[in-house]
Design a protein that fits this description.
binds S-adenosylmethionine, 11 helices, alpha/beta, 7-stranded mixed β-sheet, 7 strands, Rossmann fold
């Protein structure tokens, strides 16, 4: 693909497949499993146990937050920003939520050939920063935005500007996204570089969730360590090295999921 960030879209899909095969009790993504044969074998081998769980953990935790949002609001919008080959709408099935999946035109085209659009979702081609994609949404509905594996590829200025635009357009809305610290970003860049030179570098990091929420004048609803649940559920089921890395990441707050209420504090 032309866009370097778009090239990264296979990485989380591979992680969802790995996790679904090896840790079903924690995370199972039936739709992702259908793509195993379509992914280059060399890529499937790169993902380590820890790295698969690091990716799966964000879907596990953000799915819980989205479920909670739908249970609270009933009819609402769930918007997946930078959806890539994410199978979120398939994991949820039918309920009061309308799912929207936004990505660059070349990715949406690629996605449509690989993954048929689910009944409950609308695919939108567009640049998530220019806000044209919001035109087809009912802005009066409560809306939850999710950005998994996306924000770290941009600058903080761009992310803050996007959050300000979301706040201005959607009065009753929340945003959930995964974030890592400076050290976490360095480790993540090393991992992604193994997939080839055509992968984008990550730069946006969050050292302190509370400070970031203040910067964008939002209320912080939660800051969830990546492996909060994985470590409890998978106790002795993973390699020792995976267990130690997960414990290290959580203890030093290196990666987490922020849930923000996009209202002024
Ligand atoms: C690492 S992938 C993550 C995909 C997906 N969220 C997941 O978890 O499987 C990053 C995604 O962000 C998308 N992206 C990058 N820049 C974008 C932009 N300006 N507007 C919309 N999507 C963008 C890429 O095309 C890619 O699909």
């Amino acid at each position: 693909m032309q866009n370097k960030i778009a090239n990264t879209l296979f990485i989380p899909l591979i992680a969802r497949i790995h996790a679904s095969k090896n840790f079903k009790q924690y995370f199972y993504d039936e739709t992702a499993m259908k793509f195993e044969d379509k992914i280059p074998q060399k890529f499937l081998k790169i993902s380590s146990e820890y790295e698969s769980l690091a990716s799966a953990a964000r879907y596990y935790e953000t799915d819980i937050m989205i479920k909670d949002f739908i249970a609270t609001h009933g009819v609402c919008n769930v918007v997946n920003l930078g959806c890539g080959l994410e199978t979120l709408a398939f994991r949820f099935g039918k309920n009061g939520a309308k799912f929207y999946s936004v990505d660059l035109a070349e990715v949406i085209e690629f996605r449509q050939n690989l993954l048929p659009q689910n009944d409950n979702e609308t695919l939108i081609s567009g640049d998530l920063f220019d806000m044209k994609w919001t035109e087809i949404l009912d802005k009066s509905l409560p809306t939850i935005f999710v950005a998994n594996g996306v924000f770290m590829y941009f600058t903080e200025t761009k992310i803050l500007n996007l959050i300000a635009n979301l706040k201005a357009n959607f009065k009753n809305s929340e945003l959930i996204f995964d974030a890592t610290t400076k050290f976490g970003i360095r480790c993540a860049n090393f991992y992604v570089s193994r997939f080839g030179e055509n992968m984008a570098k990550m730069e946006f990091c969050v050292q302190n969730g509370g400070e970031f929420a203040s910067k964008c004048e939002c209320e912080i609803l939660s800051k969830t360590p990546f492996f909060a649940t994985a470590r409890k559920m998978l106790k002795n089921k993973t390699k020792l090295s995976t267990r130690l890395t997960m414990a290290f990441v959580d203890k030093f707050n290196l990666a987490f999921i922020l849930r923000l209420n996009l209202r002024k504090k």
